[in-house]
Amino acid sequence: GVRTALPTLGQDAFTHSINNAGTITGWSQDNNGVQQATIWKNGSITDLNALVNTNGFHLASADGINEVGEI
Questions:
Q1: What is Dmax (Cα atoms) for the chain?
Q2: What distance in Å separates the CA atoms of residue 27 and residue 61, rounded to the nearest whole number?
Q3: What is the chain's pLDDT, residue by residue, as a tens digit (71 residues)?
């Protein structure tokens, strides 16, 4: 494979897992330094906290993804 730089939410990022579809899980720090659980798909980054109702919880890291996209 080819190493590719991934976008961040503003600061550092770390990847944990990748599935066969190429979706990557991990975390990225936003511009305030807060760690957010993220996925990268087709070169774009998504903060998982913006996708789900966390009911007061904060998703800090996405540690894995399976072949059907479940994190």
A1: 39
A2: 5
A3: 788 899 999 999 999 999 999 999 999 999 999 999 999 999 999 999 999 888 889 999 999 999 999 99
Give SS3 for 30.
strand
Task: Using a cut of 0.85, tell me whether the model's pTM lies above it.
Answer: yes
Distances (CA, A) of 54 to 4, 24, 67: 31, 21, 24
Cα separation, 71 vs 31, in Å, equals 24
Q: How far apart are CA 59 and CA 11, in angstroms?
A: 17
Torsion angle of the four alpha carbons 22, 25, 29, 31, in this order, in degrees rounded to the nearest 10: 40
